Structure formats: structure tokens, C-alpha cells
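**User:** Here is a favour to ask of a fellow structure person. Please take any protein you like and set down a full record of it. No explanation is needed for now; the record alone will do.

**Assistant:**
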Amino acid sequence: MVHFEIYRDLCRKMNTLLFKEKKCFSAIKIEECGKDKKKVSKLTKNLMKGNSNVNLPNLTSAELLADKFSNYFMRKITLIGNNIISDTPNAICNISMDADIMFSETMLEMFRPTSDVEVKEIIIKSPNKSCSLDQLPTWRLKKFVDHLLSLITAIINRSMDESVTPLCLK
């Protein structure tokens, strides 16, 4: 029994060291990619290719799986919305409006904030095509537009008002 405990202790130490090295290696590789999304995507595929088996949840019905998936994303969307939209309509709180390039032309003298109706109309009329690097494909945005609409409108209005597109939203 003593040998088994020594073995398990060594396994834990080895796994900890491996995890730290993998994390460090991945961080260095990601940093080397810079802001090039294509390189990051390619790197991610290469780093994840080790296990080609798809691990799906073990549920008895497709309906339960779909409900679980839907609930997960609805909670996530609500959490994001709660963290961004403050009590004041069309005000965004937790997004830094710092920009990598400051707008140097003539600022808008008069700006009429857009409305949820205008934004929804533009989103619905947009073509469904999207890039594989898009974190939110257009077809999915259209599907959840009613849940995201006030958030998107608030971001647009603040961005136009301050003449800045936040780095985190580019």
C-alpha cells in the first residue's frame, strides 16, 4: 500500500508540472500570434487536435440536450447583459472605451441616438453569411436578436457618442 501512495503522489506532481508547462507553452504560442485571428484559430486547432473524439453530454433525449444548451446560453447572455447595461437606458458601464486609433476628423456635431427598432431592422436585413472566425455568426444573432437588442443598441449609441469603437468589440 505504501508503494501505491508514493506512486499516486508522484503522478499528481507530474500532472501538475505537465499542466503548468502546457499552459506556459500555449500562452507563449498565443502571444506569438499577436492580434492575427487566423493564426490564433490555426494554433487552437493544432493545440486541440490531440483528441479527435467528441465528448457529448450523456442525456437520454435530444430535447433535454437542446434545453440544457439553450438554458446555458440564455444564462450567459443575461449575465453579460447585466454586466454591461447599467440602470440608465443606453448607458454601458463595464466596457473600456479606450481605442487603439483615436478619431481625428470632425466629430459629430449633432447625434440622434439610434433605437432598438432601427438596429433590429438592420440586423434582420443583414445577409446570413459569416466567417468561421466570427464569435457570433449572423444567423445566430438574428435568432437571439430580441435578447441582445438593448445591449447592441447601447453599445452603438455610446460608440457614436464618444467617437470610439472599444478594442474589446473590434
